[in-house]
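Researcher: Going back to the complex we discussed earlier. I've cleaned up the inputs and rechecked each line, so this should be the final set. Can you rerun the prediction on the complete assembly and write out the structure?
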Amino acid sequence: MLGLVKGLGVTLKNMTKPKVTYRYPDEPLLMPNRFRGIQHFDPEKCIVCNQCARICPTDCITLSGKKQPEKKGKVIDTYTINFETCILCDLCTEVCPTGAITMTNNYELAVYSRDELFKDLEWLNQNNTHIREEQSGNVAKRHGGKQ
Amino acid sequence: MLRTEEMLLNVGPQHPSTHGVLRLKLKIDGEIIVDAEPVIGYLHRGTEKLAEDLNYTQIIPYTDRMDYISAMTNNYAIVHAAERLMQLEIPERAEYLRVIAMELNRVASHLVWVGTYLLDLGALTPFLYCFRDREEILDLFNELCGARMTFNYMRVGGVKWDAPSGWIEKVAGFVERMKKEVKEYHNLITGNEIFIQRTKGIGIVSKSLAIEYALSGANLRVTGINWDLRKNKPYSIYDRFEFDVPVGKTGDLYDKYLCRMREIEESLRIVEQAIARFPESGPILAKVPKVLRVPEGEVYVGIESPRGELGCHIVSKGKDKPWRLKFRRPSFYNLQIIPHLLKGENISNLVAILGGIDIILGEVDC
Amino acid sequence: MNSWLLIGPVLLLLVVLLFVVYAIFFERKVIGWAQNRIGPNRVGYWGLLQTVADVLKLLFKEDVIPNKSDELLFRIAPIIAFVPSFAVLAVIPFSDSIRFSDFAIGLLYYMALSSITIIGILIGGWSSNNKYSLMGGMRSAAQMISYEIPLVMSVVGIVLSVGSLNLTEIVEAQKDVWFIVPQFVGFVVFLIAAISELNRCPFDLPEAESELVAGYHVEYSGFRFAFFMLTEYVYMFAMAALTTVLYLGGWNAPFGLTFIPPIIWFVLKFLLIVFFLFWLRATMPRLRADQLMQFSWKVLLPIALLNILLTCVLKEVPVIGAYF
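Model: Rerun complete. Updated structure for the full complex:
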């Protein structure tokens, strides 16, 4: 019987303890800086090296570049991430040599139609809030920052 | 005489306490189980086959999804195997970060087990308490690597992120709090007579049976066999820490519970020591080439995941992708004993025995 | 008088329904608090309309009758289960003036009628033609029948001391000392058996979610399901009221605090028991079916019999005998 009484004591004590729940839909949950949310894409920085598309474990990134007459190399033309398959693994931002693609702390991905999950260049560019400040991978290496 | 016949009962794949998508075909005579046959594969994603087409860095996020309750140990299994083949020297700081991460993950994993197990037995509250405390660990991981469950934290040669400033202190604070919480769990659960009634003397596994069925982890240790890969075949820097391997006496479900609770305490002990000796600074990634090419050869590494021996077998042909990759998933091996254990049991012991094994279906089906 | 005969039960039904609605709400809140949660708080102020919304949802649900079920039995099972649960309320005296029926064998009437519900549950489990619900129904029947015996046996002690089965007389006999003191053993047995009769945690095997998915009402949905749920909570109302009447002195005020009206005292004691049930549910795991049976026949029944013997013996002892 003693064990049962002890258990009852524990639950009674917890009734007065502060609640641990979040008021999530009412108040947005802020994620820590390193959180891997939906990517932000900066077309200015992109050099169309295709590394992100190649490292992607689920092949969810498709991109194409076009020749620019006055500059060397290519500039980005289209850039699409398919969030049906994207697992937000952070590898694309890790390999990006210029930091054109970075993670943000936004995570709201629920939509009514699957078609909306194809996020194009413009959408990803607009997604510019809560961008991760800390860099990892190739960018960090280039800037000589502590890895 | 009334004619009686055996009834075929399908438990799962959508059943509240098969912990995912396990299906059990039970033959029952009244409430006594005559025969049980687990049917698996509902969550099979072909990780091993997919891995043959992915380079080593790309495989890491896939391993997150095998044993999703303790992804850190899965991460470690694959990178450890690759490192063994490449004979890499891992920086000190990275090793410590790995050990802290893995041991915290072990605590989180066991908390999930304790919570869901008590839920299986019909107690609602321990589940919420366990998840409350696990949430703190997940928040710590979230700060460390930016994800709550699919960490993708380890890399061949080190780890992806260094500990953010103040993180180590937070971990130390958590360890202190958790120690108190464990006492509260003991108050709430361990002495509960109903819980003891439900678990004592049930699902007993003998030493020889455990070895025959290749059980590992807590399932093996409850039978009285002192076998923990962290002690017996030390990997990483586990040989530097002082910790005990909890061993059971009778091999019943109550022992399993006690074993896992003590493992939580031991893991906290390891984390404490790791924090005390955490190197001030240093690199977190070894010098690895940009394109990882693992030299030709074969390697098998076994590590102690929360569920048992998690093995990773790589056959490399010197490419940047493994030629063949095989995971020895402890849940899969531990599940095999289920038909043996269930035969002749009352159907109300079914969930207690099944839950006691601690299977993760993502890992069973891989 | 005659008009009260009609309005009274309707009023009681409304009170009971209100109780059920807020008992469910309060249960969720209490369990939430015990688990460091807030509990329902979205519908209405402080979540007060949560259960109302739930009930409305159940009412609007499509009425599903499984194809292979025994349709007639499937339809009448919830009714068979519910009717006795409400009928037993007739004999319970809520205060010295608020009561419906005051007949000599009130206690026996309660015990006899409440066992009819088992038939409803059994029929529900059987007619669903589902293996899980069949097992749930069987377990339920076995459990309720075997706990009925210690339940009745435990109150025999009181009947012996009062010399009557009339619930009003039982309350009046507790003017000085509540029966929880002299009949403590009986009280413990009664409480345990009552919780089991109510199919509540830790004896909620018939609806053991982790094993039997939902027990006898797996296949029920919509309003029929609501009726089973209602039955359960009306029984909780009845059982808590009966416990108050039998052991906690009914409407009698403790320590001579008679300035508070008797009905308030009744409600307070009643709520204490209801809270205890919720509290228990927040703490306990579930017993196993065979252990449950063993516990009833091997532990509770002998203790209850011993209690009867003890009462008989102590009744003859001078001084103490006055309390028995």
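Model: Worth noting: Chain B has a mean pLDDT of 88.
Researcher: Good, that matches what I expected from the previous run.
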